[in-house]
């Protein structure tokens, strides 16, 4: 086993597409084995932090939904973009016009929103209407120096009824219309991963990020000095990774029907070393990138 | 007067933002002097073709609206993206999923739309809903080789009640989500300007394009070998041109309250030469780009 693997002390877990598929009447469906996997990871003694770009609800509401789906998770264990954005807005004296999901608005309760001098865009879902997009555009184009803050830059995600455009697509629309570049809060921003690692108290070289998004999860974590695993659940689509620029191939890819976390957990007891070994031994390394993966993991 | 100016034989006129501002109950409001300008240009003996990216209605319906607003205009004088797109679809055996305005759909009446193998996007206005964008995205991402055809790539335009996002913004959203580059039919595509020039029977070096969009009108026409004038009506906003890449500065900019066409027409009788002189003499050349403009016109 590689030396670094023995040093792994913490996991960052994406949620949507890794632990469950969102959408539908109950708010989502767990991916087989993932609730059990979270329990096993915690029992193994590894540190665990959930690192999500979820912006369709407050952390409180989101965590309550996940608990209802059977997950052992608490608000403090979740690193999400909205609280990070609020810190940034306060630091820089920015007053946002919000283009976000109704359920996310309470996260910005103590932020001054009068006479906006920036736009904050999240995964607004049904709030991505023609009228709302025009309104956000007019605020931006009316500013002497437009500031656009985007809660993530995902291209799309999978819900129970199919793929949906994510915030990144609408971010690009506003960027193009106003000739600005958005500031991304959330994955793949380096500062966001760093705050998640700080919550765990684990340095990047001792942590693994597990996610389904090649850019936000894999690329972002690698930029931050972590190793990254791309799961083949959620939005994962065969052959799609190649078209997108990330620093390196995913360090590992899972070829399992169930969640990556499940894959890890299924091969561990309470032994941290055994779990780390499972990461290397049980994962299915993409054949086409084997040499590069080896190098990356050397 | 420059030698080239004596050779000008035709004008291409953008419509929205140059002749009228769209929107509102009557469908739009003419820009002062523009209807009279069209009459004078026609009386002067100059060739005239309207070159628009309008895709919120069929050409027939659009022309009828403009006639109702007092313009001397016929369907044959209008070069628009939808008929050009239909030619392209037929040539390549493409069956579109349409994300366009309801009123544009009849332009595609004789196009096979079963089992789509491409997406055509126009200025769909209210049809740019979250559900419709997701639907177009799913068609595209489901294709082995996604083909996205965009009727123009404008960033925004001005209606009577304010600025609105144009098709280009939504095109960018789908491009990003699907990692594809759209094929643009309409301005600034070279083939589109060439077909407008062919309608007039005037070569590019003997024609001037007049429009309010620095990329679609000015940049596109210049790429095609024409000279271009940017009006300061419509979407024109001071200081915005500099941020956008076009081959050259606009050859001229108007600093008038009324339309550029009105500006031309106000200084001409029936003499073609006098009109061409007016283009040079009455236009207000942007001070900041005087040298480059001189060179371009030399």
Question: How do you describe this structure in short?
Answer:
Two copies of one chain form a homodimer. Chain A contains eleven helices and 14 strands.
CATH fold description of the largest domain in chain A: Rossmann fold
Overall CATH architecture of the largest domain in chain A:
3-Layer(aba) Sandwich
CATH superfamily of the largest domain in chain A: HAD superfamily/HAD-like
In the predicted model, the low-confidence regions of chain A spanning at least 5 consecutive residues are 239-247, 253-298
Query: Which pair has the most extensive contact?
Result: A-B, 33 and 33 residues
Euclidean distance between termini CA atoms of chain A: 10 Å
Query: Can you count the beta strands of chain A?
Result: 14
Organism (chains A, B): Gallus gallus
Main location (chains A, B): cytoplasm
Pfam family, one (chains A, B): Hydrolase_6
Keywords (chains A, B): Cytoplasm, Hydrolase, Magnesium, Metal-binding, Nucleus, Signal
Strand and helix map with partners:
The structure is a homodimer of 298-residue chains.
Chain A: H1 3-6, E1 10-13, E2 20-22, E3 28-30, H2 34-44, E4 47-51, H3 59-68, E5 78-79, H4 81-92, E6 96-99, E7 118-121, H5 130-141, E8 148-151, E9 156-159, E10 162-165, H6 167-178, E11 183-185, H7 190-200, E12 207-211, H8 214-223, E13 227-230, E14 252-253, H9 260-266, H10 272-282, H11 290-297
Parallel strand pairs in A: 1-4, 1-12, 4-5, 6-7, 7-8, 8-11, 12-13, 13-14
Antiparallel strand pairs in A: 2-3, 9-10
Helix pairs in contact in A: 2-9, 5-6
GO biological process, one term (chains A, B): phosphate-containing compound metabolic process
Subcellular location (chains A, B): Cytoplasm; Nucleus
EC number (chains A, B): 3.6.1.1
């Amino acid at each position: 086993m590689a030396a670094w693997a023995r040093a792994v002390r913490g996991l960052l877990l994406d949620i949507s597409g890794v632990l469950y598929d969102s959408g539908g009447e109950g708010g989502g469906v767990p991916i087989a084995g993932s609730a059990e996997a979270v329990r096993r990871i915690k029992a193994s003694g590894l540190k665990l932090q959930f690192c999500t770009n979820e912006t369709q609800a407050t952390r409180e509401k989101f965590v309550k939904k996940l608990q209802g789906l059977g997950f052992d998770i608490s608000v403090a264990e979740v690193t999400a973009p909205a609280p990070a954005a609020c810190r940034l807005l306060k630091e820089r004296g920015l007053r946002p016009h919000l283009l976000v999901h109704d359920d996310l608005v309470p996260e910005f309760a103590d932020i001054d929103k009068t006479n906006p001098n920036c736009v904050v865009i999240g995964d607004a879902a049904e709030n991505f209407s023609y009228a709302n997009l025009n309104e956000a555009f007019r605020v931006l184009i009316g500013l002497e120096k437009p500031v656009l803050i985007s809660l993530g830059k995902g291209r799309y995600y999978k819900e129970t009824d199919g793929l949906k455009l994510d915030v990144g697509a609408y971010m690009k629309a506003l960027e193009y219309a106003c000739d600005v570049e958005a500031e991304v809060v959330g994955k793949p921003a380096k500062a966001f991963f760093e705050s998640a690692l700080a919550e765990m108290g684990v340095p990047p070289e001792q942590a693994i990020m597990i996610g389904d998004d090649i850019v936000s999860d894999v690329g972002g974590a690698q930029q931050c000095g972590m190793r990254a695993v791309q799961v083949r659940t959620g939005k994962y689509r065969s052959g799609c990774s190649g078209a997108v620029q990330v620093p390196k191939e995913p360090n590992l890819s899972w070829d399992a029907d169930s969640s990556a976390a499940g894959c890890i957990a299924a091969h561990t007891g309470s032994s941290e070393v055994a779990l780390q070994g499972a990461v290397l031994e049980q994962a299915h390394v993409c054949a086409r990138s084997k040499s590069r993966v080896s190098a990356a993991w050397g």
